[in-house]
Design brief:
The complex is a heterodimer of chains A (about 260) and B (about 325).
Chain A (H helix, E strand, L loop, with lengths): L1 E5 L2 E3 L21 E3 L1 H17 L2 E7 L5 H10 L3 E5 L9 H15 L3 E5 L10 H9 L3 E11 L2 E8 L2 E8 L2 E5 L11 H7 L4 E4 L18 E8 L7 E4 L4 H11 L4
Parallel strand pairs in A: 1-4, 1-6, 4-5, 5-11, 6-10, 7-10
Antiparallel strand pairs in A: 2-3, 7-8, 8-9
Chain B lengths: L2 E5 L2 E2 L2 E2 L1 H11 L3 E7 L5 H9 L4 E5 L10 H14 L3 E5 L2 H14 L3 E9 L3 E6 L4 E7 L5 E4 L14 E4 L12 E7 L13 E5 L9 H11 L2 E4 L1 H5 L20 E5 L5 H4 L7 E6 L12 E4 L2 H15 L1
Parallel strand pairs in B: 1-4, 1-6, 4-5, 5-11, 6-10, 7-10, 13-14, 13-15, 15-16, 16-17
Antiparallel strand pairs in B: 2-3, 7-8, 8-9
Helix pairs in contact in B: 3-4, 5-8
Classes of the chains: A alpha/beta (about 260), B alpha/beta (about 325).
Family (chain B): Belongs to the ETF alpha-subunit/FixB family.
Protein name (chain B): Electron transfer flavoprotein subunit alpha
Subunit structure (chain B): Heterodimer of an alpha and a beta subunit.
């Protein structure tokens, strides 16, 4: 099985994240870049499926030069090779432009299964997997907490507000995973060393046959008008429990008409 | 005024509260038209939508719309966008709603904005990003604005409208029939409101200590008619089911009142609850970062404070 797992480098959520004042895009230099957390679950699931069914796991990442750090981490976990979709023309692409560029790269790479994390911690649109399914005409098996493949059939459990749906489709398919699905492995020392020798192919816009007028900031379907740091919340009252903390909290709730 | 399509979220034939919020929001910017996609449409649903301002209700009630993942609903909306040229489309920013909006954006070559907490003139959307640290205004500049709106962003206000029904027949494409739902598994949630829709949420974290101890969180929630949430530490430990996780890798909630017990307040958690209107924090560690955004905080043992609070609420009823 030919599995492509999409990973994204995002700013570390533990640091202060910013937008750039010049073009209002994410400031990728302001914070350390880390693997988007949910993508580690996607890599893990890809590796487990490969271990069960054989085949190959290819990492695909769209991002600037420093995204290679993220690609190496996924390779160190055990993926076989990687494609880095990297071109200055892609800078500032919105969800539509990004999904178009990635879908073109996926057509170039070829796949039986595409696996993604269900959302990124920076943009948090939660739309990319659905957009890829739409663009590729492939079944959308998203928000999966369990994935089973048998021959060319695939079954997932898709989480819903009421529990989950059991969903069936045929490969090739697009899957997104939630964190409940597995426990991602840590790269071993051996894995980290091996990752340095694994092939990473760089694709530019022309290589992936991406139409230049469909990507980048100037071609985006949406724009940031303005932004500002959220005003700090007004300081509240914090009391120390002297045996009546619950009663005091009840008084506060009553003063706000919650009870 | 021009038409704004509002996709109806419904469960077992009941219109969800977020749809009433979206209709209320749409009224301030145009003429709301509800779009019902899937089985379960009824006179009660019609009455509810009309009560909250739907001038029109487009009904695509074919059973097969509910048989496949997401794609059929996007096709129903794309059909209406082509036929009616609405001023905008509003969809609830739920897991499924965002996916529907994403597919619709590709189909109609239109821009999409995710998880707005408000929408103003010219369909300029307000978003709260980076765990609530930055407020952004953004707008769509190609096609029909498609905006997903976070539940609890607008207070639903009734304003009766005609609710004129129009049946919609859409022939689904083969691609929309690619991912078939073979079974819906409903997990026990009891009588509590749904987490993302609830006006009040009571959450427990690492400090709760065990799955059994979550009973005291549930008792407080029930006294307030609230939903129960949990931090990632609590769901990772298996103390509470994963679907109740509030935070960056879980649900985003924006209730009127959020009560956090035994949660220190790492960005992982704050990203999922920072836009709550009123925040109450109970934690024995006075240094817990969540106190920084608390409207009211109690430094103390949650096993003393929470039961006392529950008892006081019961007394006042």
């Amino acid at each position: 099985m030919n599995i492509v797992v999409c990973v994204k480098q995002v700013p570390d959520t533990a640091t202060e994240r910013k937008l750039r004042s010049d073009d209002k895009t994410l400031d990728r230099d302001a914070a350390d870049g880390v693997v988007n957390e949910l993508d580690e679950y996607a890599v893990e699931e890809a590796l487990r499926l490969k271990e069960a069914h054989g085949g190959e796991v290819t990492v695909l990442s769209m991002g600037p030069a420093k995204a290679t750090e993220t690609i190496r981490k996924a390779l160190a976990m055990g993926a076989d090779k990687a494609v880095h979709l990297h071109d200055d023309a892609l800078h500032g692409s919105d969800a539509l432009g990004t999904s178009y560029a990635i879908s073109q790269a996926l057509k170039k790479i070829g796949f039986d299964l595409v696996i993604l994390g269900s959302e990124s911690t920076d943009a948090r649109t939660g739309m990319l997997a659905a957009m890829l399914a739409e663009r590729l005409g492939a079944p959308q098996l998203t928000l999966a907490s369990k994935v089973e493949v048998e021959g060319t059939s695939i079954r997932v459990e898709r989480i819903t507000d009421y529990g989950y749906d059991k969903v069936e489709a045929s490969l090739p398919a697009v899957v997104s995973v939630v964190e409940k699905i597995n426990e991602p492995r840590y790269p071993s020392f051996k894995g980290i060393m091996a990752a340095k020798k694994k092939p990473v192919e760089t694709l530019g816009v022309a290589d992936a046959e991406i139409a230049a007028d469909q990507v980048g900031l100037a071609s985006s379907w949406s724009e940031v008008v303005d932004f500002a740091a959220a005003p700090p919340r007004a300081a509240g009252t914090v009391i120390k429990d002297e045996g009546d903390g619950g009663a005091k909290a009840a008084e506060f709730l009553a003063s706000k008409k919650f009870i | 005024m021009s038409e704004i399509l509002v996709l109806v979220e419904h469960v077992d034939g009941d219109v969800k509260k977020v749809t009433l919020e979206l209709l209320t929001l749409a009224r301030s910017l145009g003429t709301p038209a509800a779009v019902w996609a899937g089985p379960g449409y009824s006179d009660a649903a019609k009455a509810r939508l009309a009560e909250y301002g739907a001038e029109k209700i487009y009904v695509a009630a074919a059973d097969e719309i509910g048989d496949y993942v997401v794609a059929p609903k996007a096709e129903v909306l794309a059909h209406l966008v082509a036929e009616r040229s609405p001023a905008a489309v509003f969809v609830a920013a739920t897991g499924e709603g965002k996916e529907i909006a994403g597919r619709l954006a590709v189909k109609t070559d239109s821009g999409v904005i995710s998880d707005a907490v408000g929408v103003g003139e010219g369909f300029v959307a307000e978003q709260s990003i980076f765990g609530g640290g930055v407020n952004v205004h953004s707008r769509v500049n190609k096609g029909t604005p498609i905006i997903t709106v976070r539940p609890n962003s607008t207070a639903p206000v009734a304003a009766a409208a005609a609710g004129a029904e129009e049946k919609v027949e859409v022939a689904l494409s083969d691609a929309a029939r690619a991912a078939r739902i073979v079974e819906r598994v409903v997990q026990e949630k009891g009588a509590r409101p749904e987490l993302t829709e609830a006006a009040i949420v009571v959450s427990g974290g690492r400090g709760v200590g065990s799955g059994e101890n979550f009973a005291i969180i549930e008792k407080l929630a029930d006294a307030l008619g609230a939903a129960v949430g949990a931090s990632r530490a609590a769901t990772d430990a298996g103390w509470y089911p994963h679907q109740f996780q509030v935070g960056q890798t879980g649900k985003t909630v924006s209730p009127q009142l959020y009560i956090a017990a035994g949660i220190s307040g790492a960005i992982q958690h704050r990203a999922g609850m920072q836009t709550s209107k009123t925040i109450v924090v109970i934690n024995k560690d006075a240094e817990a970062p969540l106190f920084e955004i608390a409207d009211f905080g109690v430094v103390g043992d949650l096993f003393q404070v929470v039961p006392q609070l529950t008892e006081e609420i019961e007394k006042r009823k």
